[in-house]
Request: fold
Amino acid sequence: MHEMTQTPPMQHPHAAPHAHGQGDGAPAAATATKTKLSIVIPVYNEFATILTLIDMVVKAPLPEGVTREIICVNDCSTDGTEKKLDHLPHLHPDVEFKIFHKPKNEGKGAALRDGFKHATGDLVIVQDADLEYDPADYLKLLGPIVDDKADVVYGSRFIGEPHRVLYYWHTVGNRFLTTLSNMFTNLNLTDMEVCYKVFRKSVLDRIEIKCNRFGFEPEVTAKIAHIRPRLRIYEVGVAYHGRSYEEGKKITWKDGIKAILAIVRYGLFK
Reply:
């Protein structure tokens, strides 16, 4: 792993002296024992969306007693995104931030791997830096774990929630990759490639992520399926506001090929 540089203001994360609301979604009268959610955001050239996205993440309601830390891993952006990330603690002084700048672009999987290592929460959620996914869905995503029914929760763009109508072949590709993944893992997911995945931190601690780029999705899916005794995996519908390539979408057919290779590799070998 290449060494990351952390912004000087963030060497000691900004946090309130004690947890009390502060955009946490938890009432002031909550019990002293709290659950912390680590929100890990890989960021690459999202100058136009990052401040809006962070504002949504800060304001997103959480279950009672759950606080948040926001971990942003800048994957060597070249469009000025890093300056906006460095300014976040000043815009949201009551929120706990950890911001890291990678010296070399390595991809989403590598950024998430680095972010997971710095997560101190009991729960960890993956959040993309664009505006395709709505943090308002955190309540639904966290519910099965908070209720002690699940160890891992996947969102799904294909089970009834609103979504923007865009590329037909992307949908075909996503369904194909999910079906192929399910054949290797014996899971019955409807959307393996979805961004929104929530894990107990204790689950992530048992997994070594090797894929640097978009192979993260099939890799982590295969590895949680391999864990014994079996994990309790839930799926909930999430809204999806996909963007076009003109609006900055980055994934291509080449990533689909790499996903197929990752499905086979990690499906066959632990």
Remarks:
- The domain at 1-131 is CATH 3.90.550.10 (Spore Coat Polysaccharide Biosynthesis Protein SpsA; Chain A).
- The radius of gyration is 18 Å.
- Residues 168-185 form the longest helix (18 residues).
- The longest strand covers residues 35-43.
